[in-house]
């Protein structure tokens, strides 16, 4: 059973607006589960930090002095966050390839979640330049939350869970229910069908019933909806999220492909790139058991 471990959360930070927004999302998540936050800034040898170097940092400084200046800035930020949220906050400056370093350090520090700010890109920009967030999503075994809008002090209240016909699409159900339980949120489950799989709509009734039973155990309210033959699954998901005032969307990293080693398909890329609300992306685990597990039972 997939679980979200928020005991130690990694936040890559470049001091841009979206990375500062990401920190607050991470702090809210860590606080509710008495976890801690690990701030990471990556400096490349040519003095490019993540994507930018703040204007107040002199570009003529040596790499060592630049890292020291950034480290002080991070420590100051960590101290402020500790005082505001009452949680442990640590900071580190590293160097190297941005996305690879994020994944490596998240594993070394045993972080259970990566929270990253993302700017969003046009389709053409995604083809030619991609983004560090997308690269981390493609390489990380840990769940990644991508954000671009400020966190609410109330946390998350309406969590959207898309379900498709792939077996591992349903693996995120228990994770979503536990998050709803933690934040007192409602779970909005959306199933999308097409003419290529006419039997899936009947299966959705069974799936919805299973989800409602698990949610009932955790005292989580669930609403279910079916969208038939959407022109674009990602757009349909985002439109639905807007209609229910969704403030978090949970998807699988290979939502629209079978388990082939391709961990970020077009659906996931589009949802992450165009969503105005945070998107939590989790990687599926290989399993032949597609039943659901109620809390406290063996995983499927």
Anisotropy-based shape: globular
Strand content: 15-25%
Percent of residues in helices: 25-40%
The average pLDDT is 81
What is the N-to-C order of secondary-structure elements (H for helix, E for strand)?
EHEHEHEHHEEHEHEHEHE
Biggest sheet record = 10 strands, mixed
Structural class: alpha/beta
Number of helices: 9
Strands, count: 10
Distance between the termini: 6 Å
Q: Pick out the low-confidence regions.
A: 47-61, 122-130, 255-263, 293-300
Give me the side-by-side strand order of the main sheet.
3-2-1-4-5-10-9-6-7-8
How large is the radius of gyration? 20 Å
Describe the structure.
The chain is α/β, with parallel strands linked by helices. It is built from nine helices and ten strands. The chain has helices at 17-32, 63-85, 98-108, 123-128, 132-139, 173-183, 200-217, 233-243, 266-274; strands at 8-12, 36-43, 89-95, 113-117, 144-147, 158-163, 186-193, 222-228, 248-252, 279-282. A ten-stranded mixed β-sheet has the order 3-2-1-4-5-10-9-6-7-8, sandwiched between helices. Helix 3 (98-108) crosses helix 5 and helix 8 packs parallel to helix 9.
List the helices and strands and how they pair.
Elements: E1 8-12, H1 17-32, E2 36-43, H2 63-85, E3 89-95, H3 98-108, E4 113-117, H4 123-128, H5 132-139, E5 144-147, E6 158-163, H6 173-183, E7 186-193, H7 200-217, E8 222-228, H8 233-243, E9 248-252, H9 266-274, E10 279-282
Parallel strand pairs: 1-2, 1-4, 2-3, 4-5, 6-7, 6-9, 7-8, 9-10
Antiparallel strand pairs: 5-10
Helix pairs in contact: 3-5, 8-9
């Amino acid at each position: 059973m997939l679980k979200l471990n928020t005991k130690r959360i990694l936040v890559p930070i470049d001091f841009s607006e979206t990375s500062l927004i990401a920190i607050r999302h991470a702090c809210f998540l860590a606080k509710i589960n008495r976890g801690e936050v690990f701030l990471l800034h990556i400096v490349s040898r040519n003095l490019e930090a993540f994507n930018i170097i703040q204007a107040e940092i002199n570009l003529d400084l040596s790499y060592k002095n630049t890292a020291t200046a950034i480290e002080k800035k991070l420590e100051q930020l960590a101290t402020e966050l500790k005082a505001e949220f009452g949680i442990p906050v640590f900071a580190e400056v590293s160097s190297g390839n941005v996305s690879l370093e994020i994944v490596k350090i998240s594993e070394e520090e045993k972080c259970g979640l990566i929270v990253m700010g993302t700017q969003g890109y046009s389709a053409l920009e995604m083809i030619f330049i991609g983004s560090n967030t997308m690269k981390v999503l493609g390489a990380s075994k840990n769940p990644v939350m991508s954000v671009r809008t400020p966190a609410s002090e109330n946390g998350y209240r309406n969590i959207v869970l898309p379900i498709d016909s792939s077996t591992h699409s349903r693996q995120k159900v228990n994770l979503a229910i536990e998050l709803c339980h933690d934040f007192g949120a409602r779970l909005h489950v959306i199933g999308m069908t097409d003419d290529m799989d006419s039997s899936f709509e009947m299966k959705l009734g069974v799936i919805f019933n299973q989800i409602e039973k698990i949610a009932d155990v955790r005292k989580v309210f669930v609403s279910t909806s079916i969208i038939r033959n959407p022109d674009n699954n990602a757009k349909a998901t985002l439109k639905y999220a807007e209609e229910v005032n969704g403030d978090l969307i949970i998807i699988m990293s290979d939502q629209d492909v079978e388990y082939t080693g391709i961990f970020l398909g077009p659906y996931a890329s589009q949802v992450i790139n165009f969503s105005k609300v945070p998107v939590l992306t989790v990687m599926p685990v290989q399993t032949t058991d597609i039943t659901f597990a109620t809390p406290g039972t063996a995983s499927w």
